[in-house]
Amino acid sequence: MADPPGCCFPCATCLLCLYSCQWITAKKEKRKGLRTTKCDCSWFLFLFCVFLFTLVWLYFAVIILNDFHNFNEFIFKQRKLWLDWSLVLLIATAVLFTYSAVLLVLALCLQLCRQPLKLHWLHKTLLILTALVVAAAFTGLGIKWAEEWRSARISLQATGPFLHIGIVGGMTILAWPLASFIYSARNTGLKVFLLLLYCTVMLALYLAPLGITSPCIMEENQLPPKPALVGHRGAPMLAPENTLMSLYKAVDCDVQVFETDVMVSADGVPFLMHDEELTRTTNVQAVFPERTALNSTTFNWTDLQQLDAGSWFLERRPFPTVQSLSAGDRYQVTKQRIPSLEQALQVAKQSNISIMFDLRPENHSDYQNFVNATLKVILQSGIQLDQVLWLPDGFREQVKQQAPGVKQVYGRKRLQNEKEPLQHVNLPYQDMSSEEIRQYRQDNISVNLYVVNQPWLFSVMWCSGVSSVTTNACQVLKEMKHPIWLLPSSTYIMIWIVVDCTSFLAILWAFLLLK
């Protein structure tokens, strides 16, 4: 077990100290009889698997940031506690990944220096805990947030080509410690097994691009028009959701549609509100403490106008962008009240944008009267009816008869042999594939997908040809003049060949140099 040239004793000793949590000098006479056993190899394999496990979870954590505001709202409804849990997720994930990555780097360096891999029991315990925590996170994701698995599959359309390059690069670097181990190990069966396993993995990686598909692998002249922006409850990163300030901010972001939620007060006034309770977005606990848990439809319009619908935005900071608000905007936030549908329609009319809304709650015993009250306000507002996009399924036929100019938007895919073909659909972005989007586009069906916040996801939707996206981040997507990346097929094939050939030559060099 001669030490390779360039591996200094002090460095090797420090590596052993960090990995083994004890001071073991790297000099031969001081470590006589200290060898890497089969048990040590097993722990190294476990370390490698934990590293891959945490790396995959880190990828998932970054992907699900697009939808994390929904998770924050869910926790608030359950626990009445507001916290930006995305920060907790990212910090915890970064700590687990960094720990396993540092240990793996130490182990690989020790192998290159031909030093024994004696992992300390403390590291073993922490690695087991890391694996259990990540496994619990994946399990919770699968049980409570299963749609994020589909989000991950969509994300591969944006990251697949780059993940391939990164994984090939990582496996190429791994060839150096692997070659060192193979040349120093005495077990011929183990050496043959590891070499065959490594070659199989590399062959699969070299051929992986054959299975990578992305709508953004296309010629520049094939790129569809940029999707229109639909402001999700306005511009909720810049102003309190479902307020007139949020609506005006959305107009400044060049949105073409204001998406909101409508409820009807006890005295028949339609107003903007998403939650059935008022606790998250108003100060109802301070003004009407005994009515905090009541449905917002039990309040009359006079009571609703007493509520502050803006200050919570500054107190809870639902998005990091709140910190960058100007003094003028902060003052304006504190003056926000719950707007009526009539007020929102007047702003939409003046700003020449459309308005799309759900009417809640659909299971209410008085829902038909809610529909009637809402239609009455729409017809009396003077807005062009084709600027109104109607989402609710309840009493849809009545709406078609009383307001035939209103655009009917459906929250489902089209059915076979449908009597009346759909013209507008509104679906979660996980529910439609790129192929379906293209087909709908060819059939002149407008497709709006929600909620799209991250530029990588917007790029995939853009390349797929979606008509519009509902977003919380209109101020970000507004500035995008082009998808994040767009590659012609010929360029992608050339990159694939160059990466694979470079990797093969580097691996060959590693095995020849360390022989």
Describe the sheet with the most strands.
Answer: 9 strands, mixed
The CATH level-2 architecture of the largest domain is identified as Alpha-Beta Barrel
Order of helices and strands: HHHHHHHEHEEHHHHHEHEHEEHEHEHH
- Helix vs. strand class: alpha/beta
Strand residue percentage: 5-15%
Which term fits the overall shape? elongated
Tell me the span between the first and last alpha carbons. Answer: 13 Å
What is the helix tally? 19
Gyration radius from CA atoms, angstroms: 29 Å
CATH uppermost class of the largest domain: Alpha Beta
Number of strands: 9
Mean pLDDT: 93
CATH superfamily of the largest domain: Phosphatidylinositol (PI) phosphodiesterase
CATH topology grouping of the largest domain:
TIM Barrel
Total number of distinct structural domains: 3
Helix content: 40-55%
Sequence stretches where pLDDT stays below 50 over 5 or more residues = 1-6, 28-32
